[in-house]
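--- STAGE predict ---
source: upstream dedup step, 1 unique chain passed
mode: sequence only
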Amino acid sequence: MAIRVDVVVAAMRDLSARYGPYEEVIYLTADGEKLTQKHLNTFSLKSRLLLIAGHYKGIDDRIRAYVTREISIGDYVLTGGELPALVLIDGVVRLIPGVLSDIASALEDSFQDNLLSAPVYTRPAVFEGQGVPPVLLSGDHQAIARWRWEQRLKRTAERRPDLLSEGGGAVSPPPEPAGASEAPSHTALPPSPPEAPSKAAHDTPAE
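--- STAGE serialize ---
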């Protein structure tokens, strides 16, 4: 069973009429672009997103004329697009300042710069013979930053060498310890009017 395109488009038009145009209309579909951190970074700078989630066999294929992006979360099939939509929402929302207590830490997450995250440790200092790396207990922030950077390179080379290939093999030098004030500001990047599709964009199929 497929969802009717006229019903979905009518809902899209109603939402646009009530709340204004959307900067992106994203259709969650198994044959879309595979969701990456770069997508999430881009979407987090948008102020208005509309997610379209199909179910079972999906939506009548003519819906593709009314969306701006088609996104998949991986090479597998679920019963509906609701869970992929939640994955996208979670990935976007955590990048908005104020959601995480330390937004700067999100900039060091896996995939932000084609590297995996460094290992993390907490108490106790020693557990069943396994100790926290001494450098993390040293209080030397520059040494800690360099250690984390080296661990990110090592872990990526061992577990996801394809990420290094995607980045062209070039890796920037380790960054200085960053403060929250250095995190990107979403409020300083309001949506550009030319980028926002008008209501007519939802009324007329794309070429």
